[in-house]
Amino acid sequence: MPFGQQSFKKPEFIKVSDVVWDIPKTFKPGMRVPVRVIATKKLLDDMDLQVYDQASNVATLPGIQKYSFVMPDGHSGYGFSIGGVAAFDVNDNGVISPGGIGFDINCGMRLVLTNLTIDQVKPHIKALTDKLFQRVPAGVGATGFVKISKEEFKKVVEEGAEWAVKNGYGWEEDLERTELHGRADWADNSKISSKAIERGYNQIGTLGSGNHYLEIQWVKPENIVDEKLAKKWGIFPNQIVIMFHCGSRGFGHQIATDYLQVFLNVMERKYGIKILDRELACAPFNSPEGTNYYKAMACGVNMSFANRQVIVHRVREVFSEIFKQDAEKLGLHQVFDIAHNRASLEKHKVDGEVKELLVHRKGATAAYYPGREEIPKMYKDDGSPVIIGGSMETGSYLLVGTEGAKETFCSTAHGSGRTMSRTKAKKIWRGETLLKELEQKGIYVRSVSYAGAAEEAGGAYKSIDEVVEATALAGISKPVVRLIPIGNIKG
Amino acid sequence: MPIPITIITGYLGAGKTTLLRRIIDETDKRIAILMNEFGEIAIDSKIIKGKNIEYAELAGGCVCCSLSGEFEAAVKEIVEKINPEMIVVETTGVAEPDALVLSIEENLPEVKLDAVITVVDADSMIRFPSLGVTGRLQIEIADVILLNKIDLVSEAQLKEVEQKIRELNNRAIIFQTKFCNVDTDLLFGLGVEHHIKMHGQHVLDVDYFAYTTKNFFVQDKFEEFLKNLPAEIYRAKGFVKFSKGSFLFNFVAGRWDLEKWEDVKRSELVFIGKGILKLKDKIISQLKAVEQR
């Protein structure tokens, strides 16, 4: 089992600070850079050892800059660890790797405000959750209400959330509050397979399974950490907000699978790249295969932006119906939409020199410090909003990117990080009992399957408070508000 | 009676589709094959849309199903609509099979897990020394491993790969293959009561022997006997009689189950494994020792 495996060597860490730990290049032959782990001592000790093995494998890839990073919520994943960040110099043979992006391309979080308070929503929580459960389909094979042809879907994957807004799903202002304006404009639908289209075209507006969810959350007054910024971003004590987590569904998965095959075929033969683990299959960014994947990945990015855009529209519909008021009047404005599974072409200073880097963030969120060009205008002076999804029981966070993120290529954590495999969680928790317990705690949950709920038990995750604290101590992001669920739907 | 279900895993390009083709070509059973999508297996037949699956009858009796809904719901639908003699599930090359096994064992009383078959690409195992998360899981959980593409590696490398596999799993039977050339009946433990087919190019060092008795076995002693079966025996099956009744028994790579059965006249057991004929006398005398006196 991937957790707690004994067969991996525990590295000798070099302590840089209380929350920064390095694994030197001598740990494994072929490492081009050291590994840097952002974690408290406790998180460091608790991390499964395969994470360090994987991060040091990543450190051997061509073009990698400075460090192979592990965020405090790191756990082992496909090739790269989840919580892994690696930046490659595209002008110096830097690579692109599907394993460093994740199968659920552009999987991410969206946070939406309301002007409702806990007292107004509490009496309706069951009706609200039940209706959201109907309107936002969850589960592996869930299909959405947006019925479009495969030809139309090809437009979606090039236009992203803009397509959705143009077709009446959501507001123009949503795009200003979405990374990349909701559209990866380098997408090219000729680079994706018909199999991918087949898997994706009927899945817009669906959550999917696994740890994907939609939550109604409560801003407890004592959980507002940065009052000034919270206020500026429209957050007030006892407010109700909506947060959801989903991605590009089977579509992104198919794109990643397709290109893994392509890369496995050319990597060594054509480009002479030797890797330690085939799950790290990659190609030079500036190669036909690498560029094609970058354009195909963008299609996955756009599908996921469109997906979340349609879901926002459904959420607004449901709130309007239950509270018998327009969504505008209910103040259902989006705060932000941000992904944690993507590779982005960005400019960063490396040892005093500005370089064009492809930053892979897999289970890691972009945290741009104030002034960066990637931040939408309205947040530019504050730093970019960062949405960290926790487990049902432990709550979630809204953070903001800070100066220290210069050291991590503008990256921070993405969630609380698993401490055990899904299978093990299922063995320990009975979904049915868990849901009852949660209801007693004031969280009403609708789940497609009990087993699915058990996989996501809070006890299967690291403490989100500790993860967020580690990022704050490292200076890469700082908390604005902590959010507690009162209603949850999941796959 | 629950329908046996077999899971096929393996990394991208290891040879899963080749194996499926072979199964389809060789079987004379009604097998439902659940794959994540059609496409790799050419299909000219009419595709029927169900709720959680789409499916198509192939010439020869196999039914190809592609998943369009939840896995568990899809399996239930297969049992209901197709009622096959057995089900084979092909996982995607990147899937972690442990969740699937749990799901079958806990939530699907309609079926019972027969075996997890993992196709391993010998050449890749040499070229990429670090085994990823998914690759490890796939090997760890296997009952049967097809060590495929052995023609692409040297004999020394093959030994190295076998050893690497053994470090993760010393329980599974390993078949060395090229183009997955294994007698597919062996994978499922079907038809062994009669004979083991040898197809033209197959060269397999697998033997089998049978034991029949009218005596009852003592159940706890019999199970103790199973626990101590030598690792060379990877598969055994048949009927056993205990004083409390008859059971169908099925043993794969150290794991077994006994299922209540209508009364049979005799216990009949078949043992399969590599080079096991030399163990035959010892095993039969052990069996005699656990008969009721």
Any overview of this molecule?
The complex is a heterodimer of chains A (491) and B (293). The radius of gyration of chain A is 21 Å and the shape is globular. Helices cover 31% and strands 22% of the residues of chain A. In chain A, the strands form 4 sheets. In chain A, strands 7, 8, 9, 11, 15, 16, 18 and 19 form an 8-stranded mixed β-sheet that branches. A 7-stranded mixed β-sheet of chain A has the order 1-2-3-4-5-13-12, sandwiched between helices. In chain A, a hairpin with a 7-residue loop joins strand 15 (385-388) and strand 16. By secondary structure, chain A is α+β, with helices and mostly antiparallel strands. Chain B has 9 helices and 14 strands. Chain B has helices spanning 16-26, 71-81, 97-107, 122-127, 133-140, 155-168, 184-188, 219-227, 280-289; strands at 3-10, 31-35, 48-49, 53-57, 63-67, 86-90, 111-121, 144-148, 173-176, 206-213, 233-242, 245-252, 255-261, 267-274. Chain B is globular, with a radius of gyration of 19 Å. At the A-B interface, helix 2, helix 8, helix 10 and helix 12 of A face helix 2, helix 3 and helix 5 of B.
Produce the secondary structure layout.
The complex is a heterodimer of chains A (491) and B (293).
Chain A: E1 14-17, E2 20-23, E3 35-38, H1 41-46, H2 50-58, E4 68-75, E5 82-89, E6 95-96, E7 108-112, H3 118-121, H4 125-135, H5 150-159, H6 161-166, H7 172-176, H8 194-200, E8 213-218, H9 227-232, E9 240-246, H10 249-266, E10 283-284, H11 288-323, E11 334-339, E12 341-350, E13 353-362, E14 365-366, E15 385-388, E16 396-401, E17 411-412, H12 422-428, H13 431-440, E18 444-447, H14 450-455, H15 464-473, E19 477-490
Helix pairs in contact in A: 4-11, 5-11, 8-10, 10-11
Chain B: E1 3-10, H1 16-26, E2 31-35, E3 48-49, E4 53-57, E5 63-67, H2 71-81, E6 86-90, H3 97-107, E7 111-121, H4 122-127, H5 133-140, E8 144-148, H6 155-168, E9 173-176, H7 184-188, E10 206-213, H8 219-227, E11 233-242, E12 245-252, E13 255-261, E14 267-274, H9 280-289
Parallel strand pairs in B: 1-6, 1-7, 2-5, 2-6, 7-8, 8-9
Antiparallel strand pairs in B: 3-4, 4-5, 10-14, 11-12, 11-14, 12-13
